[in-house]
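Encoded backbone
================
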Amino acid sequence: MTPGRRSSTFTRLLRHGFTDPSAAERLLDGPELAPVRNDPVLLEALGATADPDLALHGLVRLLEAQPGPTAHRELLDTLIAAKPLRDRLLGILGASAALADHLARHPGDWHALVTYEPHDLHPGVAEFERGLAEATDPVSLRVAYRRCLLSIAARDVCGTTDVAETAAELADLATATLRTALSLAERAAPEDAAACRLAVIAMGKCGGHELNYVSDVDVIFVGEPAEGVPEHQALRSATKLASHLMRICSETTVEGSIWPVDANLRPEGRNGPLVRTLSSHLAYYQRWAKTWEFQALLKARPVAGDTALGEAYVDALEPLVWKAAERENFVTDVQKMRRRVVENIPAAEIERELKLGPGGLRDVEFAVQLLQLVHGRTDPSLRSGTTLDALQALAAGGYVGREDAARLDEAYRFLRSMEHRIQLYRLRRTHLVPEAEPDQRRLGRSLGLRTDPAAELNREWKRHTGVVRRLHEKLFYRPLLDAVAQLAPGEARLRPEAARERLEALGYADPAAALRHLEALASGVTRKAAIQRTLLPVLLGWFADSADPDAGLLNFRKVSDALGKTPWYLRLLRDEGAAAENLARVLSAGRLAPDLLMRAPEAVALLGDGTGTGVGPVAVGGGLAPRDRTQLEQEILAAVGRAANAGQGVTAARGVRRRELFRTAAADIVGSYGTETSPAEADQGALVDRVGAAVSDLTAATLAGTLRAVVRDGWGDTLPTRFTIIGMGRFGGHELGYGSDADVLFVHEPQDGVDEHEAAAAANKVVAEMRRLLQLPSADPPLLIDADLRPEGKSGPLVRTLKSYEAYYRRWSLVWESQALLRAEPVAGDEDLGRRFVELIDPLRYPAKGLGEDAVREIRRLKARMESERLPRGADPKLHTKLGPGGLSDVEWTVQLLQLRHGHRVPGLRTTRTRQALAAAREAGLLAAEDTEILDEAWVLATRVRNAVMLVRGRAGDTFPTAPRELAAVGRYLGHGAGHAGDMLDAYRRTTRRARTVVEELFYDDRA
């Protein structure tokens, strides 16, 4: 061959899509293709395949395998003369290495591709049964199966059938295969066959007439005794036949296997009997079945064995399927099922997952099946087991928007086509898009993408998954808006009853009210209504994820009514990705955050991404990141400075406090729930610390501003006495919750030359006025000041001088007061006076010689009395977060005993914060690492529960709520999914029980 000739052939091969022209040229010049090497038709046909190199290699192998010259010549002549065979054969060889291997092993099977009569274009079960009729054992069945598969794949790759028709043919071939396998099993055990009636029910994709090339074939077996045969004997025989059928299809032979037959969808799964009677099936589904099992029955279809028995099975169970949406736990199950199960997909594979990944096939299938369960009970037209048929019926009935249905249909067909081509290549069960460029190139070309196949494939794949991701949630909700909005002529509308059905299924307790809210929000032709109609389908999905969707929708209507005319509000929700989801989470998580927001709805601007876009009227830092105490004090003191009097100044300070409480609560909710782009915060302790620090700093700043306002109003710039506020309890420990009072001590010291009585009167007036102004009824939540931890308690003076405190503590101080002072920290007022107060109390709370035995016994006695006297009547001690075993009191008293005993020699224990003291005790060797972790976990969990109760109920509480919706909302905040409130309570009891064991060892053991 001349160099010029070689160069010309090389170039032509490249132009026809060959990636290895040199190897292709050698094959074309070889003896097998010598008679046709110059025929332009062959090269053109090879270039039209998904992988010309693979097709050419497979063709040479097939020619080499022909039994003699005559057969060889017949194949070549037919290949060149008959375009249908050429397209089919080369199409298969270029798309499937596995079928090329089959043809090389069975070189005469290419004849199955020659026939091209109209009746061959769409064969059914009968035609496939004839194709398998000669099979006498598992090996010959596999050969016959692949011969039939050749014809299906040929029609598929040539475009003779679309993806839905191909899937239906694969299901029909599976049906014929199951029938043949059962026949072989019965032939092997005629006595068993005579003893029973056995029906095979196809489930899953086979039952739905939408099978893949390589997939488990899901089945359920139903057996009944033949006349005169005892039931137990008949079931034993039926089980033998069913087991043999499964082995015939599943076992690996010299010809490989066909596909696994999976019977795990049967009642009780793999733990249940393989074969049951019809009455046993019925009893199980009536009493024990879960919602997902009825969902699976949507696709049940008798395919083999006793036809009458199979039809009786479907007839008996079908009514139960369409009543599933009326079940008591349906909403809970739906909420659980709606959350995509991706945890088991390795992180490296999730982006390549065609089936289970975000925007994958499962999203479409689940959405369609759920809508069928909800609406199919009253509309028989929806009862199809085939996804695309059901989607079309849903659109025709107005249950899904026509445009949405058309776009989902297109996306589903493309993704299923990708799945088919991926599996066809090696005939292996996989849903992963290949990473290698040659594989992506072949896959893209097989789908008709020829310019830049790999790039085009990835672009189209991402486009279609993006469509599914955007639409699969809206699929539930957009028709709800259409039900209350004006539609274009000819558009089908969701009937009011159907809209109510759907809202009930999605967790709305009052669907009629929900529809009224939707009508108010989405009706009309204003810009506001148009944007609401765009936002609501997504918002409704987020509301349905919560424990109280009704409250979420109602609160959204209230906020929108208040802010709907402000230009920035809807722009914020539409344009800032985080804002809309954050708002949905906050509005449906409980009462506290919405109540705070309703008092000043413009605070919704805080829910944006905090990028400083200037959206909204809130002048200070956007976003949900907490502000530090210095920033808060500066803002509050500036507002107080602008106020005309103390009342206005404190009103301004309380307004800042309300806004910042909302910011803290919103950040806590979003961090606890997570969003679509950001998972829930894994470190529960970090969430607790952030809330405690934020609320404590906010309380301190509010007290500082109130003190400034009161002093300025009554005395001008200088109070007759120096004055400081000492935070106590959780306030001093930076551990305040949403519903906590501010425990404080008030300390003063007369200015030089000021009479003590005048100074005391001024100090008392300041305290009285601060308390009054902070508790005045208003739109802002009150801040309650509690000074009961002062010397002599409620009987003692509200304010003392530093000298009075010194005299009292020197002469009268009790051990419980030393314990209380462990949490003392100056929070507002005169810094020097606060520092000197700390110097005064340090020897009391960190005694130089530790605690004496009498003091230890007194602390233990006080704790025991507190537990017995203060626990509310009727409360379950094991679920009381403060006083229950292993709760806050247990952990804190244990830590504080260690501080009193060892604080003088362990500097790390000299902290007001519980978790820091725990860590210091561990580092000092006073606590084992495991014990520290157990106590910390219990303290964090109990604190989270208290925060959750306040967020959900809008009022403080130390026990779990009893109302189911409130309990579920607490569970969601704590990371427990829908329907897992019992698991949450069990987890709490388990955690606190472990903590109590540690407490009993440390707190009550004299050796500790």
In short: The radius of gyration is 38 Å. The chain has a mean pLDDT of 90. The first strand starts at residue 196 and ends at 202. The beta strands are 196-202, 217-225, 261-262, 275-276, 301-305, 721-727, 742-750, 785-786, 799-801, 825-829.
